[in-house]
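User: My instructor asked us to take a sequence, write out its structure as tokens, and then describe one feature of it. I'm not sure where to start. Here is the sequence I was given:
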Amino acid sequence: MALQKRAEQQYNQAQAEVLKWQEIVKLALDKGDKSLAQEANIKKKHHINTANIIKNQLEKLNIQVDKLKEKLPILERKINEKSIGSIDTIYPSAFERMEAKS
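Assistant: Let's start with the prediction itself. The structure tokens for your sequence are:
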């Protein structure tokens, strides 16, 4: 889940970079500086690619986390069953203690 949160933050940062470079492209074109606009567009495309890679990783992480969340109640139940079982073996029941006394 920590990886999921980190990936979400990285994705949001990459998206913010895309918007920033898009704005720079627009400003450069408004000023008539095609060279700067092309350079900014290259950087924008780089951040789009980065965001897409992170998005794919995030989608895979989301699937894994969902599967783990589905399995968690089963695991908790098994742990509880084992705990109860081990308590029964450590502390004999009242009936067994009465039998031992007679």
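For the description part of your assignment, you could build on this observation: The helical segments are 2-31, 34-90, 94-101. Try explaining in your own words what that tells you about the chain.
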